[in-house]
């Protein structure tokens, strides 16, 4: 099938009952003088672009894991589209942003083939690539000046340009440009939340799904600048020689990321920056002022995101303070006190897993839910408690949403739990299609309201709705998880 876009003609393939268009470039390669700068829209091409295979993945440290399956390159700004038909039906669109701590992952991970999500539904799915790690989020504004003032938000700017491309072209693929749902998990969920508080994106989408994410990854400029020095130092650069990073091989920058990760774990090092340009004010203030508006939002996190499955008797209690500082910076003392409280009733390894789940994910998720409700958004809140034969760990809900439970049992998703696939895929698709996650397999799901009206769905072996305290997050802990 050939589709005409504003960038040129693209040819897709029929795959698993839908049409797939893979690896469509939406921006010029961000290399040379474009490295660490906002993406530039792709120039129209001549002829027909063969969209029959995935494009390059963003440069990342774990690329060896996939070395026989995919290409990695700085020239990675491409997107995939899955659609039931390139016609004029104007189907709702899912704009999916992959996770991976802002330093790994891609839109071609086998797990996220679009037909798994939208199967048997009249919907279009788009998945995008964006720059990762230092190439996407290294804030160089302090050392290289105004020309690089947006360098800490290149990954977010990539997402915005991809969204703009979709807005302008998705109608040709049978999608409705006025019915776009942002969806992401982990760093993808954080990206969705970051887009919610980015003024320039307002009006480009109409719903949001935030899984295991919030705006806790948005760093103040000082923190981002300090993190940048860690990577520059690992490259043998200082403030006077920092400009050399523009021409250093990407592989060397990835090695420097690994060195810097000894001070700050990569999943805490990267993310958007409150630069006062793209993100103009603190997320809290932006949401409190009602600037998100009456946006339908589906948001939640997992009960055991980072929890230990069992007691680790070799757990090193002496290293906890150091580990917490690398994760939270000057916020670490507050978290350590909570850790000691938990140690009074549980083994230190279990206490550590509990505080990590709480302060990396849970607290921020409830905090932003409260802000969104107060700011006028319509919010359906959930917690994923279902562990199958294990725990409700980080990412464990994704197999059920994307429908892998039957064929992926070797990963721990068993055929006997396929009913949870029907529930999760059904609820998510109902939200995408109708703006409401209610399905007949679930009890009546009431949106959150301020005060005593807070409810959330608990997805366990038998899902149930519970009333919970929307003020239960730790108000003494800031939204920004790590601060230096």
Please summarize the sheet with the most strands.
11 strands, mixed
Q: Span from first to last CA?
A: 52 Å
Q: Based on DSSP secondary structure assignment, what is the total number of beta strands?
A: 16
User: What is the ordering of alpha helices and beta strands?
Assistant: EEEEEEEHEHHHEHEEHHHEHEHHHEHHEE
The CATH superfamily of the largest domain turns out to be Alpha/Beta hydrolase fold, catalytic domain
Alpha carbon gyration radius: 22 Å
- The helix content, as a percent range, equals 25-40%
CATH topology heading of the largest domain: Rossmann fold
| Mean pLDDT, all residues | 94
In terms of DSSP E residues, the strand content is 15-25%
Assigned CATH architecture of the largest domain: 3-Layer(aba) Sandwich
């Amino acid at each position: 099938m050939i589709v005409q876009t504003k960038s040129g003609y693209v040819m897709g393939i029929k795959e698993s009952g839908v049409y797939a268009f893979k690896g469509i470039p939406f921006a010029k390669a961000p290399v040379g003088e474009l490295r660490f700068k906002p993406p530039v829209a792709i120039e129209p091409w001549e002829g027909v672009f063969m969209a029959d295979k995935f494009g390059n993945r963003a440069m990342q440290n774990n690329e060896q894991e996939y070395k026989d399956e995919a290409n990695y390159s700085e020239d990675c700004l491409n997107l995939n589209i899955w659609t039931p038909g390139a016609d004029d039906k104007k189907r709702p669109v899912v704009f999916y942003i992959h996770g991976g701590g802002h330093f790994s992952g891609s839109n071609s991970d086998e797990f996220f083939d679009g037909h798994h999500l939208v199967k048997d539904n009249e919907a279009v799915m788009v998945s995008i690539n964006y720059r990762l790690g230092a190439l996407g989020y290294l804030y160089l504004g302090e050392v290289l000046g105004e020309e690089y003032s947006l360098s800490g938000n290149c990954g977010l700017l990539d997402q915005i340009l991809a969204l703009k491309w979709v807005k302008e072209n998705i109608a040709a693929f049978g999608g409705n440009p006025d019915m776009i749902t942002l969806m992401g998990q982990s760093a993808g969920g954080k990206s969705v939340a970051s887009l919610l508080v980015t003024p320039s994106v307002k009006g480009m989408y109409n719903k949001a799904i935030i899984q295991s994410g919030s705006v806790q990854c948005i760093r103040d400029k000082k923190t981002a600048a300090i993190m940048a020095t860690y990577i520059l130092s690992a490259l043998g650069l200082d403030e006077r020689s920092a400009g050399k990073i523009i021409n250093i091989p990407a592989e060397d920058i990835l090695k420097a990321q690994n060195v810097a990760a000894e001070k700050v774990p990569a999943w805490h090092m990267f993310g958007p920056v409150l630069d006062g340009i793209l993100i103009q004010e603190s997320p809290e203030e932006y949401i409190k002022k009602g600037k998100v508006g009456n946006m339908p939002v589906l948001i939640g996190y997992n009960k055991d995101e980072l929890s230990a499955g069992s007691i680790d008797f070799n757990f090193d209690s002496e290293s906890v303070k150091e580990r917490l500082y690398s994760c939270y910076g000057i916020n670490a003392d507050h978290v350590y006190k909570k850790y000691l409280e938990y140690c009074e009733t549980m083994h230190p390894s279990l206490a550590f897993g509990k505080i990590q789940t709480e302060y990396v994910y849970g607290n921020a998720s409830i905090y932003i839910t409260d802000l969104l409700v107060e700011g006028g958004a319509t919010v359906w809140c959930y917690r994923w408690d279902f562990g199958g034969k294990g725990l409700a760990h980080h990412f464990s809900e994704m197999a059920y949403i994307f429908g892998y439970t039957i064929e992926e049992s070797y990963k721990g998703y068993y055929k006997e739990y396929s009913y949870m696939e029907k529930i999760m895929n059904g609820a998510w698709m109902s939200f995408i299609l109708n703006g409401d996650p209610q399905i007949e397999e679930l009890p009546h799901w009431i949106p959150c309201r301020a005060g005593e009206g807070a409810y959330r769905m608990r997805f366990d072996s038998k899902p149930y709705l519970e009333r919970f305290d929307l003020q239960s997050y730790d108000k003494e802990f800031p939204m920004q998880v790590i601060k230096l």
